[in-house]
Design a protein that fits this description.
Elements (H helix, E strand, L loop, with lengths): L6 H26 L6 H12 L2 H10 L8 H33 L24 H19 L3 H17 L5 H19 L9 H24 L17 H16 L5 H8 L2 H21 L5 H25 L1 H7 L1 H5 L6
Length: 342
């Protein structure tokens, strides 16, 4: 049975996936090295987005997670999540390799044909999120059979999070699981504290606190002359900002979801996974095409990349939803009639 939709969760996914899209547009321009004089400004925007969007996306994915009762339920749960995430994962991996053949060195995340043989241990491009999310579902699902108290899972993953920050383990999946399982379960844990009727006055303290925290974070980041943005693999102590980004989002999103423009992002939230997978190749192709025809204005790249790119991504999602064969690759649950639960 599909989990009951909650508007502010859909809104959160919709707005957050737009921020992911925006981050990749700007990061692509930074990585292209076509606008060296503005690299610092581009990287500052990327950093502001990256300390927020993926942590919040993981927490939103974990919102509906509940401990499983027995191994039989776990196996059913594991099979459904494997199909639900595995088919889009394989689809994107093929697209990434094809894109590499077309774009060559202009592609930000290079991938060769032989890389398809190793995607079971090393994901390609943005598909890492699906790979890690699948591993989190299976790991926490199995653990929850034996540790049914959500507080126990929260404590265990919090310890893993600290280990990932201070003593990173150089095994890809292990490090990712330690780092992101806590953020995922934080989303589930916070479900108990979300108020049915939140108000801006009550949220103002969190907004102020997070605002000050981000300012201090960015000032320290700039002072250290960072040449890159916070890592999603080994963020060091900088990763401590991730849980606060989640707390801020879970405080503000229920309020923003009541504003008139929210309906747009609520609709996008229902297709957030499809947008996530399709935006990366489309943004890359658009950037490569603009550079190829001699467009070297940053503002033109931003305007066309953001406005036209977003419209193109959503048009492509619409086509995938309308054509059953294409829909299977991004919405396998609709074709296979899977009950997506937890």
């Amino acid at each position: 049975m599909e989990a009951k939709r909650i508007q502010w969760i859909d809104f959160g996914k919709g707005l957050t996936i737009f921020l992911v899209f925006l981050g990749h547009v700007i990061l692509g321009l930074f990585d292209s090295q076509q606008f060296i004089s503005l690299n610092r400004s581009l990287l500052t925007i990327v950093e502001l987005l990256y300390i927020f969007h993926i942590p919040v996306f993981f927490a939103l994915s974990g919102y509906f997670f509940k401990p499983l009762t027995n191994l039989k339920e776990f196996w059913s749960f594991a099979k459904k999540k494997t199909v639900l995430l595995g088919i889009p994962y394989l689809f994107y991996s093929v697209i990434q390799v094809v894109l590499q053949q077309i774009g060559g060195s202009a592609v930000r995340d290079p991938a060769e044909l032989g890389d398809l043989l190793t995607i079971y241990k090393m994901p390609l491009g943005v598909s890492w999120y699906l790979y890690v999310l699948w591993a989190i579902y299976l790991s926490l699902g199995l653990l929850s059979v034996f540790i049914r108290d959500k507080k126990g899972l929260f404590t265990l993953t919090a310890i893993g999070f600290v280990i990932a920050l201070l003593f990173p383990i150089h095994i890809y999946l292990v490090q990712k699981l330690l780092l992101w399982s806590f953020i995922f379960i934080l989303g589930s844990f916070l479900r108990e504290f979300i108020k049915e009727s939140p108000n801006w006055r009550g949220a103002s303290y969190m907004i102020l606190f997070y605002g000050v925290l981000v300012v201090l974070f960015m000032l320290r980041w700039r002072k250290l002359e960072f040449i890159g943005y916070t890592s999603y693999d080994t963020p060091d102590v900088w990763g401590l900002i991730f849980p606060f980004s989640v707390l801020f989002a879970f405080t503000v999103y229920p309020l923003l979801a009541k504003i008139s423009f929210a309906s747009y992002f609520i609709a996008k939230g229902k297709d957030s996974l499809a947008i996530y997978l399709l935006h990366a190749p489309i943004v890359s192709i658009l950037r490569i095409a603009l550079i190829a025809v001699g467009v070297h204005s940053l503002w033109l790249h931003l305007s066309i990349g953001i406005v036209f790119g977003w419209l193109l991504v959503n048009a492509t999602v619409w086509i995938f939803k309308k054509v059953p064969l294409l829909s299977f690759f991004l919405y396998p649950q609709k074709i296979l009639k899977l009950g997506v639960k937890r």
